[in-house]
C-alpha cells in the first residue's frame, strides 16, 4: 500500500485496497492506542494541527494518535490567534506552517480549503473537515467501527439519517460505502437530502440509494443506523434551521422496530437526535466509534509519514 507522502483530501483519494490496508493496520494499533504497548515509530516527526472550526474528537484524537507514536504536535485552534486575523491568506499561512512540520491536518469552514492547502503545501495535507464538503478520516474510523461490529463491510444495509446536505461526514461515508457494495438508504427531509453531485457520483459507481423522509419505514432493514446532527451553523437562514430542527429523535421506542444486532453510530457531537436512554443498549456504538479515531489516525499517520509498527 503506497500512501507515503500523499494528501488525504477526499475519500476518493483512496482505493478500496488502500482503505482495507488502513483498517487492517488500525486493528494492530489498538494496544498502542490504549498505551498497553509503546513504539515511537514517528519519533522526530512534527504534525501541524490547524483547526479553524470547533472540534473535540478530531483534534484530540489526532493529537493522541501522534503522541502515542512519538510525533510532536504543533497546533493552532483559532484563526484569531494566527496572522490570518491580520489578513494573511490561507495559502501563505500554509506555506509557512509547511516549513514547521512534516504533515498538516486542516479543519476549515470553507469547502475546498484542504484542496487549496494541498496545492500550496509540499508536505502532505490531511483534510479534517472542510465546511460542508468532506471528512475522510472520520469515514475511515466509521468504516473501522462498522467492520469491527459486523465482521465485514461487504453488502451491509446502511441507513444514513439527519442532515445529509450539510453533514460532511455522510458525504465521504456514502462514497466509501459505495466502494464496498453497501445498500444505502438516505433518510432526510427533502431540503436536507444528499447533494446532487455526491448522489450522482455514488449512483455512477453502482449504488442504488433509496431516499425517504420517514425513518420508521426503513429502520427494520438496517444493519447500521448512522445518525447525524443537523448542522445549524451551516444554514444561511436561521428560520430554515428551525423548520427542520429536532426532525429525528432516536429513542428506545423506535429501536424496538430494529434488528437486535443493528448498531447505532454518530460522529458526535449529538444534540437531541439520539436520546441518552439509547446509550445503555446493545445498539449504541458511538462512544467506541469516537475512541476508534485514535488507532485509525495512528495507522494513517504511519502510512503517510512512513512509520512501521510491524518492524
Ligand atoms: C463532525 C464534524 O465535525 O463534521 N464531528 C466530528 O468530526 N466527529 C460532525 C458534526 O459536527 O456534526
UniProtKB/TrEMBL annotation:
Signal peptide: none annotated. Its EC number is 2.1.3.2. GO terms for molecular function: amino acid binding; aspartate carbamoyltransferase activity. The keyword Nucleotide-binding does not apply. SUPFAM superfamilies: Aspartate/ornithine carbamoyltransferase. Pathway: Pyrimidine metabolism; UMP biosynthesis via de novo pathway; (S)-dihydroorotate from bicarbonate: step 2/3. Residues 6-147 form the Aspartate/ornithine carbamoyltransferase carbamoyl-P binding domain. PANTHER family: ASPARTATE CARBAMOYLTRANSFERASE, ORNITHINE CARBAMOYLTRANSFERASE, MITOCHONDRIAL. Belongs to the aspartate/ornithine carbamoyltransferase superfamily. ATCase family. Heterooligomer of catalytic and regulatory chains. This is Aspartate carbamoyltransferase.
